[in-house]
From TrEMBL:
GO molecular function: acyltransferase activity; hydrolase activity, acting on carbon-nitrogen (but not peptide) bonds, in linear amides
Domain CN hydrolase residues, every copy: 1-245
Alphabetical list of PANTHER family matching this protein: BETA-UREIDOPROPIONASE, NITRILASE C965.09-RELATED
Pfam families: CN_hydrolase
Keyword Hydrolase recorded: yes
Protein name: Nitrilase/cyanide hydratase and apolipoprotein N-acyltransferase
Keywords for the protein's UniProt record, in alphabetical order: Acyltransferase, Hydrolase, Lipoprotein, Transferase
InterPro entries: Aliph_Amidase/BUP (IPR050345), C-N_Hydrolase (IPR003010), C-N_Hydrolase_sf (IPR036526)
């Protein structure tokens, strides 16, 4: 499987967000990408981060989602589309998984919200495994993958070869950018990516926004814990990588024996 990880800039409007998504899809198709993932809540953008994000109605978001589905079918490209979804209960932070045929295969809601997101979003319930081209994968959204490793293990225990991790970690206004990937004096986030891979024996693909002060890079980490590739901090772009699926044995996850505790 060939994956694409889209480090996208912070959008200023729903229209810009959608256009950025479609542009990355065009680019991914030119590289024969099978499955493309975007940063957290990219449609219309992540709230609570001092970004200017418009309030959108469900009908507007549904129309944008329909356009992404049509482009997905046109390119025969699977898409992991993080977005918000307004409901009578509140706004969910979720991912829509779109098949290469342009069909919505399912959704994964963020079940563990960051404390700063409570009041902006509401938590979902339940977890899902997805499968495209015979490859099983899961999704853990930002804070889930950083602080709740069981969200990643859940997917690995059910045969996932890779877990995708849409995130928004950093700022456009103030902060410190790491001097190199895995910087021991930097934030812990990239080391958490290594842990999620090694403790489960799977690939971990983390996708961040392009930010002025970026706490972690868009990265692909191998089942052995090596950073196979990452996007330079602060630079928008598409990271394309071919997975060697036979390396993702999932052995640590398969040996997990909670009944012994």
């Amino acid at each position: 499987m060939r994956i694409g990880l889209a480090t996208a800039p912070v959008p200023e409007s729903l229209e810009q967000s959608l256009q950025n998504i479609l542009d990355f899809m065009d680019q991914a198709a030119s590289f024969d990408v099978d499955l493309l993932c975007f940063p957290e809540a990219y449609l219309p953008g992540m709230r609570g981060q001092h970004f200017s994000i418009p309030l959108c109605e469900q009908a507007e978001l549904r129309d944008a989602l329909d356009q992404v589905c049509k482009a997905s079918a046109s390119h025969e490209l699977g898409v992991i589309l993080p977005m918000e979804w307004p409901s009578e209960q509140g706004r969910y932070n979720l991912v829509q998984v779109i098949s290469p045929e342009g069909k919505i295969m399912g959704r994964q809601c963020k079940t563990q919200l960051d404390p700063g997101e409570e009041g902006l979003y509401i938590p979902g319930r339940g977890r899902q495994i997805f499968e495209i081209n015979g490859v099983k994968f899961g999704v853990a959204i930002c804070h889930e993958g950083w602080r709740y490793p069981e969200t990643v293990r859940w997917a690995a225990c059910r045969g996932a070869k890779i877990v995708f991790h849409p995130q928004c970690t950093g700022s456009n206004t103030a902060g410190r950018t790491s001097q190199g990937w895995g910087d021991p004096d930097g934030p812990y986030y990239e080391m958490a990516m290594v842990c999620r891979s090694v403790e489960n024996g799977i690939y971990f693909a983390s996708v961040n926004y392009a930010l002025n002060f970026q706490d972690s890079a868009t990265s692909l980490v191998s089942p052995e814990g090596s950073c196979l590739a990452h996007q330079p901090y602060g630079q928008p772009g598409l990271l394309v990588q071919q997975l060697e699926l036979e390396l993702a044995t999932g052995l640590p996850a398969r040996r997990y024996a909670p009944d012994r505790y």
